[in-house]
């Protein structure tokens, strides 16, 4: 059965093209819910005007669906709560000079 850790590892392949860091390290993954083989991922972007939303949705679906035991993937983009740099990992903060 797929785990949250498995999904986070898959999502580490989703890279923000402007920042060069993955969505997990950037704190842009807001939630992962697993029910059997169904995975729901909630994510955000650094700003509502960011144009990469459709690309990110496709990448999340692609990488998570490749995991053993995953039957379906649903993706939801949200801006509540708004993303802030405080959500980033310490490594990401260091890499970006925060």
From TrEMBL:
Q: Please give the Gene3D superfamilies that the UniProt record associates with this protein.
A: Fe-S cluster assembly (FSCA)
- Where does the MIP18 family-like domain lie? 5-75
Per its UniProt entry, which superkingdom is the organism in?
A: Bacteria
SUPFAM superfamilies listed in its UniProt record: Fe-S cluster assembly (FSCA) domain-like
Matching Pfam families: FeS_assembly_P
Task: Report the protein name in the record.
Answer: Metal-sulfur cluster assembly factor
């Amino acid at each position: 059965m797929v785990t949250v850790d498995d999904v986070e590892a898959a999502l580490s392949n989703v890279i923000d093209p402007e920042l060069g860091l993955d969505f997990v390290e950037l704190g842009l993954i807001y939630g992962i819910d697993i029910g059997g083989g169904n995975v729901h991922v909630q994510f955000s972007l650094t700003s509502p005007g960011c144009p990469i939303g459709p690309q990110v949705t496709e990448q999340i679906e692609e990488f998570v669906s490749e995991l053993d035991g995953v039957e379906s993937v649903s993706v939801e983009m949200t801006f509540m709560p708004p993303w802030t740099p405080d959500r980033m990992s310490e490594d990401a903060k260091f890499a970006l000079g925060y």
